Amino acid sequence: MKRYAILMLAFLCGLILLSSSSLAFAQEEEPLTSEEEGQSSMSVYFYLDGELSAVQRDVAGGGQMVEFTVLELLNGPSEEESAQGYLTYIPEGVKLQYSTVKQDNSEYSVCLSGELLELKGDPETAAKALAQIERTAMEASGAPKIGVTVAGENTGDQPEDAYTALGVAREESEEQEEGGGGKTVLIVAIVLGVILVGILVFLAIYIPRKHKGASTRSKARGARSKKTRSGSAKKKPSGKTKR
User: Fold this and answer.
1) How far apart are CA 222 and CA 32, in angstroms?
2) Is the pLDDT of residue 242 over 60?
3) How far is Cα 211 from Cα 201, in angstroms, rounded to an integer?
4) Is the confidence at residue 235, as pLDDT, over 70?
5) Sheet of strand 51-60, all strands in order from the earlier edge strand to the far edge
6) How far apart are CA 68 and CA 154, in angstroms?
7) Cα separation of 49 and 57, whole Å?
8) pLDDT, mean of residues 14-23
9) Phi/psi of residue 210, each to 5°?
10) What are the residues facing 45 on neighbouring strands?
11) Helix (H) / strand (E) containing 68
């Protein structure tokens, strides 16, 4: 019964560890705002070792916080980040023309300049660039859907959907986004799983041995006690005296 209780306790500890890890990931995605400086620490996504990876940028808070975050993305990695291996697939010179958001915050859209069309003919690179834009804008705005358009070449031209203009299926961009954080989450889950299994194996082996050892010692003490009582009985005088 004790062994079952200990195993259940270890299982609950594992669930707590997993819940804490999920909470930590959720908290990382929330902007950290400094009221004194009026700035927020926002996530901007570049690629590192083939995976979407976030770097932090301090941007001005307020109503244009999302736009400032997208501008940081378009500026590309810093020299230090580039030295660490971060890179962007967004062409140099792409500018943010404007952004819109629906009243219910169900969709946030950005319109970018025509330099983005340099990726036309290279759908793989275009998908990676669009994934950077979507992931950054989605976390900054909190909107579940992100629209990306490209400004027309001539004044008065209607913006064109970036996916259509670049020949990229939206699913390709979504696959790039999912691949970004999936690897890290998988590694954390594996590590926690190994720790939990190790705890369970240790308890399953250690507890029976400890119980067996305690039982053996108890039997040994009982045997010694019995032997002592037996010896005492043999040495006890009969009470008769010779005359």
Assistant:
1) 66
2) no
3) 16
4) no
5) 32-34, 39-48, 51-60
6) 26
7) 20
8) 48
9) -65, -40
10) 54
11) helix 65-75
